[in-house]
Amino acid sequence: MARAVGTMSSPGRGNYPASRRAEQTAFACREAAAGLFQVPTPDQVVFTSNATHGLNIAIRSLVRPGGRVAISGYEHNAVTRVLHSIPGVEMIVADAPLFAPEKILDGFHRALRRGVDAVVCNHVSNVFGCVQPVEAIAQLCRRYNTPLIVDASQSAGILPVTLSDWGAAFVAMPGHKGLYGPQGMGLLLCGGEASPLLFGGTGSASRMQTMPSDLPDRLEAGTHNMPGIAGLLEGLRFVTRMGTENIADHEIRLTRRAARGLAALPGVEVFTDGKGRSQTGVLSFRVRGMDSEQIGEELARRQIAVRSGLHCAPLAHRTAGTLETGTVRLSPSIFNTPRHIDTFLRELTAILRENESSGSRS
C-alpha cells in the first residue's frame, strides 16, 4: 500500500487527500466548462481524450446502420470516417461555396426536408476558417425535431459556443486549441441521450455489469487523465479571464493582416472573404507552381510553424476545389503579434523569390 503523498490521484477511487483533490479539480473543470458553454449542469460535461473521441461517442449514440445523416461540405475525417464505418449510412452533403453561409443553410434545409436521423456540422472549418451558421442550423434542427451534433474544434474559446441556446444533442471540442489546455484532452457537452463507447470501471455502481445510466460516469470508463484535466481547467480559466470576444477580435485582426499581405504576393491564392466575422482562427493559401508541402517545409526551416496538405479534411478540399493541391494553413492565436505575421510574410516572400530564381536558372 503506497503512502498517498502525490498531489492528485484518481477521482472517486478513494477518500485519501490525493483522491479528494483530484475529485475537486475534475469538478472545478466541469464547472468552468459549463459556465463558459452554457451547459445546464456540470455533470453534462464529459471528459474525452480529444474531439475525435467525443465525436465518435456522439455519432454512434445517434446514428444506426442504414441511417441518413446531413453534414456540411467542410467536415473533418473525425466525422466522415466515423460515418463511413457504420454500415449503410447515407451522407447528404449540404454543399456550398466558401464563405456562403446562406447557401450552406439552404443545403441543410433541403436535407432536413428529405428527412435525416441527425445533422453533423462543424462551427468553423479547420481548413479555411469559414464560420458556419450554426445558430440558424440549430433552429432548423429544432423545427424538424432532428438532433444536432456540433464539432466546435476550431471555435471553442474563440466564438460563443452555447449548448443551451443551440439545443444541440452534443458539442465536441479538443482542449489544446482555443481552450489553451494540453494535448490529449477534450470535452463532450451532452444535451441528449448518450451511448458508451468504452466500458469499464467508473468508481461508481461497481456491483453492476452495465455502465451507469448517469452522466458523466456513463461515458468515462477507466482512469482519468488528471494532469490533462488540471491543465484544461487553467486553460478554461484563462479564456474566461481574457474573454472570447477579445480573443476573436485579436485573431481576426491578425488573420486579416496576413490575408492582405498574401494577396499582394504574385502567384498566391488566399482563401478569405475579407469582410465581417465570417472567418476566424484559420487562414489557408496556395502558390501557383509550388507544392504546399514544400512551402511548409521551407517555412519550418525558418522557424515558422504552419500546416500544409489536406489537414485531415479531404471533403473540405473537394468542396473548395483544392483537393489536388492542398493548402498551406496558418493559425494565429492570442499569443501571436502583428510582428509575427510580418515575419511570416517576409520569409514567404523570400521563399517565393528563391523558387522563381531557381526556376529561371533551370
Provide a short characterization of the protein structure:
The protein is α/β, with parallel strands linked by helices and 362 residues long. Helices cover 41% and strands 14% of the residues.
Explain this structure.
With 362 residues, the protein is an alpha/beta fold. It has two domains: 226 residues, 3-Layer(aba) Sandwich (Aspartate Aminotransferase, domain 2), CATH 3.40.640; 118 residues, Aspartate Aminotransferase, domain 1 (Alpha-Beta Complex). 41% of the residues lie in helices and 14% in strands. It has eleven helices and eleven strands. The chain has a seven-stranded mixed sheet, with helices on both faces. It has a four-stranded antiparallel sheet with strand order 8-9-11-10, with helices on one face. Helix 6 links the parallel strand 5 and strand 6. Helix 1 packs parallel to helix 7, helix 2 packs parallel to helix 3 and helix 8 runs parallel beside helix 11. The longest helix is centred in the last third of the chain and has 24 residues. The radius of gyration is 22 Å and the shape is globular. Pfam families: Aminotran_5 (PF00266). One of its GO terms (molecular function) is catalytic activity. This is Cysteine desulfurase.
Low-confidence stretches: 1-5
CATH superfamily of the largest domain: Type I PLP-dependent aspartate aminotransferase-like (Major domain)
* Class derived from helix and strand content: alpha/beta
Separate helix tally: 11
Strand line-up across the major sheet: 1-7-6-5-4-2-3
Mean pLDDT: 94
- Can you summarize the main beta sheet? 7 strands, mixed
Taken in chain order, the helices and strands follow as HEHEHEHEHEHEEHHEEHEHEH
Instruction: Compute the number of structural domains.
Output: 2
Q: What is the CA–CA distance across the termini?
A: 72 Å
